[in-house]
Sequence to fold (90 residues):
Amino acid sequence: MTLNAPVNGPALMKVFKEMLSKSVTTDQIYRMIDLFAEDIKRTPLTNQEVPWLAFVRRRGGLFKRITSDILPVDSEQVKFDPRLEKYLHD
Fold:
């Protein structure tokens, strides 16, 4: 995913360096970035939010999500049993 937005490279690199010093692996950082991108596809950022800074602010929650036993589910892959269809509508 490409975000055409300005990035404060030195500040973001400082955050990544801090994360690495706290034993967050590069693979985990990549997974957090991917998860962040999925999140903002579903719920776009406001015009006032800068993407790189929004990532920095959400990094704690993103890390918890990638390290939990519960994996994110792609809602496009979820299929309802047709027998339950009548219960989905009032």
Summary: Residues 9-70 form one domain. The chain is about 55% helix and 0% strand.
